[in-house]
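User: Continuing from earlier, I have the next pair ready.

Assistant: Great, send them over.

User: Here they are, in order.

Assistant: Folding the first of the pair now:
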Amino acid sequence: MTQTEHHLPRGLAPKVPDPGDAPADRTPPAAQGHVARILDTSPFPILLVCLVGIVLLSAFAPSLVVGDTWLTLVAGREVNDHGLPSTEHLTILGEGRTWTDQQWLAQVVFYAAHALAGMRAVILLGIAFVLLALGLATATARTSGASSRSTFVIGVLAILAGPWGWTLRAQTTALPLFAGTLWLLVDASRRGVRRRTLLVLPLLVLWANLHGSVVLGAILAMLLGAVELVRARRLASIPLALIVLSPIAVLASPYGTKLVAYYDLMLVDAPFAEILREWQWSSPSATTALFWLLALVAAGLLALRRCRSRLTVYELAVFAVTFVGAVQAVRGVIWFAFVAAAILPVALDGVLTKADVEAPKVNRVISVAALAGLAVALVAFLARPATWFVSEWPEAQVEAVSEATRDPSVKLWATDGTADWLLWRVPDLRGRIAYDIRFELYDEAALDRIVDYGTRTGDWQRALDGYRVVVVDDRAHLEALAAEPGARVTYRDEEIAIVERR
């Protein structure tokens, strides 16, 4: 008997490794402990993210595919086939105009996903971006000291505030970048800026090639720099770098300084703002009701000093900036919702003062069960037939349009909701379709023509001069066009009709 074995209780003597033993778990103990700690202490944020994933992977997956989804794929194909565009050649009304495709990288990413596994991969990738963004937002709240309970409560309100923000489009790729940027900036406002805060800059560079919301990310980074400079009362290098380099990062694109004109058009004086609901202010309505509910909850909490004092000056400023943006335009609601999910839970703890219940075993069961449910939903999603993913876009409509435009001289007038879908499914329509949802490409005359047709203003049928095939999505247009001499309806279902004209 060795000396060690003599002094140790039975069963605790060190075991001499046997070369034939199975290899031990190679996962670093620190990593195992970190994962276990998250499972044991954050069951409700994990449950929230998993529930969203389960819902999106199941019944709502086909509903995520919208007109912007098809535009993203069409533009991705355009970049793949013809390189980065600078001039518009897809539509008739926009032919020859400057096309600054700021979102080119997001489009290429989704196009590559489609080439890999069709719409199944496109939708799955989009959902992954959404869940990653939600995970980062809830992680921001938790690392800021928010309780698991408050993170869940505010998270639910934030998710419901702008559901249109979950649909698949180029913007989807920007969601995790926004959430990641916000995490770094909020962390710096609470713990002080340091070198890792500068990771915001490469995130902005990537973001500058994905979606125009990078401008908001740069504004928030510059805002932190300004707040820190005021607080330090000296020219500190990292805050100064954020102020100087963030706007430069916004232009880190193959288009370079051409993006200045693009952002001026899109953000300062958009001529199409009166046409698109997303560019209009968030007036109270059924669509924006839950956004205003979230805003009222936020206002009520921030009116209480014990809640407001739990937030930093920077966090309050971010709240103000994103709230103003959300009120000015519906498209800004999604960013305010993420800010609320990341920041507001800490304030809510000023009211719900009771700490999270310490029940590690129960919490781990909740976390593991939620993750298991998400895994089951993923397996079911992958097992779906390919037709399910595009079930809200009838193939019969594509076949009817393809047949009606078989002659390459025929020009097509479609709705903005169907144009890019038809361009994607019938590539020969390139250069033969009137317009699509890129309204920033069209001049005033073209926009007037589109509006006159849509609102049936004046002699609106003259807007269709030169177009032998029209896709109609309402009865008033259909009755008027079908009454034209020589016109005939060649296809009709509950959603659209196709009219061939002389």
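And the other member of the pair:
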Amino acid sequence: MYKAPRGTTDILPQEQPYWELVRQKIVAICQLYGYSRIDTPIFEDARLFARSIGEETDIVEKEMYVFQDRGGDRMTLRPEGTAPVCRAYVEHGMHNLPQPVKLYYIGPAFRYERPQAGRRRQHYQFGYEAIGDADPALDAEVIDMAWQLYTSLGLSHLQLLLNSIGCRECRPKYLAKLKEYYRDLAGQLCADCQQRLVRNPLRLLDCKRPSCQRAARHAPRSADHLCAACLEHFQQLQRYLGLLGLPYKLDHRLVRGLDYYTRTVFEIQPRGVSGAQSTLGGGGRYDDLIAELGGKPTPAVGLATGMERIVLNLKKQKLPVPQPPPATIWVAHVGDAAKAEAIGLTAQLRRAGVAALMGMGGRSLKAQLRQANALGVSQAIIIGEEEVARGELTLRDMVAGQQQRVPRSEILSVLKGRHLGTDDI
């Protein structure tokens, strides 16, 4: 028996109302903040992610789906959305557009990792990028946009975590301090962090292993080692968040998992939840990434959020979601002539904007009406030999149990009088 591959899942019809609600809110919030949609390919040149995310990150070393295509090129199923958007920005000359260019995307991402709640090997990611401006007010706007998205969905008890990890000028000195601090603690670190101490020390602060978290508790803070420009940027950002009324908590261990981040990093989490799956969404600045990909030096800031994480939290908080309305009309029929009439009538109803279903499979009239009732249909049209001969239809109210004969030519007018369908009727 075939099953979905490990780490993937089917989004069944009963789950779709959650996803549709999230999509609608995403589109609405992006329109409010002036973002336009972009769709990038599901697979890209593997070098794009090695260069942007960082060759010594877990994503590049362990989690990417890499394959060689028939032409011999090394390709990767996209593990995240920012690098492809930046590649498109450079490739299509978007630096010639008014800056910042604001783009958003929705689509699948792929990471080979241990499946768990809210994290799958194929997951769906929503993200947005504001490219072309270094103003800390843009950082605040990006954070505010994420906060407004989550709260518009009804999510509550959220917390905003904030940090600055500096830039090329001040980060090397901070990393030296960090290595010095960890030198005597190396024996307490997990195997991965012992490697990170040599190759990627900033990620030591991000490990979720209890022993590594204890070691990170008193580690030097990046915010205490910022250059003058980064410090001013961070202070201004905090001022703007205050003006927006967004409560935040400084977290010196917040670094995010991708090497391209500079200065601002942030995450939004439900309060009281910890661990690797606690984050709803996060992001930050990546002022060097466009230049790394061959473009001109271009500041940028953005956010990414997992759609599954949002749906999971909607369910945890038991928030109601709008359900799609049931079909309005069920067309039941008995006999070959009635079936031919039912096919034409059902098509006519749909073209007039009425959601209509028709009985299939030669079931009895009783069975057809039972099925209509189970589907929550409010009205049924019954066509039998007598109705065909007289040019009439029987219209049955499935709730009240009452029915009436209606001339075939008048059915749309009668339905409009019952406020069924659209104004096109």
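Worth noting for the second one:
The chain has two domains: 13-170+226-316, 329-417. The domain at 13-170+226-316 is CATH 3.30.930.10 (BirA Bifunctional Protein; domain 2).
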